[in-house]
# Entry
Amino acid sequence: MNRRGALEIDDRKIFERESPAGRIAREELAALGPRLSEVRDWIGRMEKDGRIGYRALPDQDVRPILRAARRVRETADDFVVIGIGGSSLGAVALQAALAHPFHNLLPRKTRKGPRVFFLENPDPDYLAAVLDTLNLRKTVVNVVTKSGGTAETMANFLVIRKVLSKAIGKKHSERVIATTDRDNGDLRAIAREEGYATLPVPANVGGRFSTLTAVGLLPAATAGIDIRGLLAGAREMRQRTSTSSIDTNDAWRLAGLLYLADTARGKRTVVFMPYATALREIGFWFRQLWAESLGKARDRDGREVHTGQTPIAASGPVDQHSQLQLYMEGPDDKVYVFVRAERFGKRVPIPRAFSGSKTCALLGGHELGGLMNAEQAATEEALHRTGRPVIRIDLPAVSPHAVGQLLFLLEEATVVAGGLLGIDPFDQPGVELSKILTKRELEK
Amino acid sequence: MNRRGALEIDDRKIFERESPAGRIAREELAALGPRLSEVRDWIGRMEKDGRIGYRALPDQDVRPILRAARRVRETADDFVVIGIGGSSLGAVALQAALAHPFHNLLPRKTRKGPRVFFLENPDPDYLAAVLDTLNLRKTVVNVVTKSGGTAETMANFLVIRKVLSKAIGKKHSERVIATTDRDNGDLRAIAREEGYATLPVPANVGGRFSTLTAVGLLPAATAGIDIRGLLAGAREMRQRTSTSSIDTNDAWRLAGLLYLADTARGKRTVVFMPYATALREIGFWFRQLWAESLGKARDRDGREVHTGQTPIAASGPVDQHSQLQLYMEGPDDKVYVFVRAERFGKRVPIPRAFSGSKTCALLGGHELGGLMNAEQAATEEALHRTGRPVIRIDLPAVSPHAVGQLLFLLEEATVVAGGLLGIDPFDQPGVELSKILTKRELEK
# Structure
């Protein structure tokens, strides 16, 4: 039992002899030490040069975000976040993890803030459905694109803006908050022209590292999530991932183990499998972080490398009834990262009844949370006995503080893994061709 | 343009020379012909022996399901489906694909039926949140487990049953519909004892093939989905996948191509990527179908094989901003199956505004649906030019008829792929160890 609210990584099974094929020797991990030190220096240089900003985010002044959120909570019935990818996945993950699962169904009084909707795809049916439900007279729109030129986001925004302007006339401009680059880009220019309220995304924080900027924090605070607690958790994890020892630096350990699993053991896929329904969407956030940061054709010296472990977002126990068969018996090409919450928010006992049923007799008297964690332990052990490599991340609870730790840990581990692979974890050159071809399709 | 409402597969790019690494020669596919005939005979024998029943489902009498659904629609405010894996993923996918995306937020009058909730994980926080929102005095519960002994489902059911019984007393038994085996299992026995209404799951239809039984159809019909249309689509696809030619049998083609991509080209992962938000959950349904059916340690002769292509559920365009970088530049170990809707339900024009912005100038005057499909075409082409193998499934629309075709196509293709691999696509021996260990954890 974790007493001090700190996230902990249990990596013992990946070293144990029950899993010869997937096993990683402690010496191999230790041998990464010198390279990890180089990676640390490389990250430090980028930080010092101002090229990367995600490590500074836990220290930011969140008062402008909290002020904006308070105003929305007091005045709006509905809050629509328009963004995609790095501009949506983090906000969606925070909402799923830390707001009420049926936030939008709760009475306004219980919610204390507006309903929250996300518009990601420029999907006409989905957008029309959002419009079916909005109270346009009391809707605030948060349009989020760092570059200001994301096609999907601007398309959705153009539609929503027109609808809003039809409904409430010229004062619709007071109902838009633009989250974008402080100085540059089309959305910044439009915001100036129209007089929108704005919140900045730091120039040196890329989309997939921007959850702890206004991109993720404004929607979170608007939904009533404690963003100071979130940042406190991130700050604590930054501290703990600033040491230069593989024994104490969780990001080094996690990155080192996944890097070895991928490159030295052929575990081309990493399965991220939380056992708390609230954490499911964090898997999709991680999936972007890991895939887009590490999937690279060339290393930093221009050599062709085609790196990148494929991330899979799973969810326990539901995916025991979907993916576990493949994980247990299929190709041994995966490494498994479980996430467990030691405590759930609610304690729900399972009533004793139908003792003629073996299943009911077994379950009665336990708690639902106990069943969740029993299944997690059993699945981890079953994979381990089959020789498949497993790691577990233990959260003390699904709280802002714990989620803050988890997000920062995963960000830092991703950057460290990028360093070990020798690639640039901050660019995404591979998505350009599709954008160019989309433009051509539209110009036809 | 597809004129007759039929789903079509476009597999041309997987044969074209722009993709030398991923390319599959037409001759290779044709050479599978004799083996596919054997597979057809094997499926035919199992069908004749009554061992498999999914191919008969399109012909079932749905009147008992429609009657039950009508009663729930007329009397209930809330409908809670308790099931997991094969007992939930299909129902969730149908709801997402064919009901209003904000079904539960619509006014009762617009909805015409109850709100619909799914309880999959035995997660105390999620369950408590469902209870926060239910109107217990007008709630109907659908507990779904074919075996009658699924721990997660029975745990959630025991809790909900007690709450319901506290709220409305003895008549809570009238508010339970059990979907389970016709004769056997704990839930059948409990249903008899308590006098629950029941709907059967045919003994020869396994969980992941049960979407077109009451398991998927009762929740769908309760949400107002046209289940006759769904079955008509499935029936049409059954017809079209009963031919013995790779040129006309879509299941043969799809299974054959994915099989060759996996076993002859090292595409160990299949990415299923629909470009319609409504179809996203079908990816998670397919993920179970493909993984659990094909991920097997041994073939039917007992030889150790460890088969199983890893399925990934993606969603376009949002995952262009998350996974595409990896797909374009990472390891060339994936085959891509796009799903496109030729028509969306709504036509939403993108207004012309902010012509100073290149993005806005490009978008203005197009429709959102056009942008979705332009992005799909562009992404498909970008992957193709990079040498990655792509297949596309075109749906005429996201309609019950089209979704029925799609589900049946994917089921049939999965079984055919199992036949080509020489494994049993209908069992799941690999999940037992985790169940045994869970039991032991609980007995501690």
